[in-house]
Amino acid sequence: MPVPDEAASSTPEGQRSQIKILVVDESQQRLKLLTAALHEAGFDRVHSVQNSISLLDIVRETRPDAVLIEVESPTRDTLEQLTMIRDHAPTPVLIIAQDPKAQSIQAAVASGVCAYSVGGVSPERVKPAIEVAMATFASFKALRDQLANAREQLSQQKRIDRAKCILMQQKGLSEEEAHKALRKLAMDRKRKLVDTADDLIAMSKLLS
Questions:
Q1: Of 121, 136, 168, which residue constitutes the final position of a domain?
Q2: Is 59 within a domain?
Q3: Is this structure's pTM higher than 0.90?
Q4: For the chain, which terminus, N or C, has the lower number of CB atoms within 10 Å?
């Protein structure tokens, strides 16, 4: 699906934001008003699309810093699209909707929405709303990265411990001796300790 070129603005360059915004709204009239509000708020790099179908492809193509979606109420199709973005092309998402129901907000957040605003939008409101969405996204990403790192460290330690157990059983070593032997083997092969552990575990499976 072709994506319109970024629109220009006559506002002085020093006051303009370099954040790239993808704006989605099925209403052409609302889309124009929202795009105008973004330009007035200092955003020049704005892509506007009316159809939310294949939204993941558009996000991958344009690589926006944030996605702003204006709807009456988030539909199941929209939420499914947002879930795909969350899983395959994580991007800060802000929804501007007329639906204030907690159920709709919860469904949107579960789909990866970082901020949910109810009612109309103005240049004064849109900029802080986008900033909140981006800050929330950054916080969640940092937490996810920390969790993934902790899980990987735990996985590596388990594999190292498993390799030490193999050495202890095969060579009658103590745990300390097995650890030293594994480290020496890693140094001799110029490989990481966990990679050497994986090699030892794989070899043990082949010989068993």
A1: 121
A2: yes
A3: no
A4: C
3-state secondary structure labels for all residues of the chain: CCCCCCCCCCCCHHHCECCCEEEECCCHHHHHHHHHHHHHCCECCEEEECCCCCHHHHHHHHCCCEEEEEECCCCHHHHHHHHHHHHHCCCCEEEEECCCCHHHHHHHHHCCCCEEEECCCCHHHHHHHHHHHHHHHHHHHHHHHHHHHHHHHHHHHHHHHHHHHHHHHHHCCCHHHHHHHHHHHHHHHCCCHHHHHHHHHHHHHHHC
The mean pLDDT value for 28-45 works out to 90
Print the domain residue range for 73. 13-121
Residue 142: inside a domain, yes or no?
Answer: no
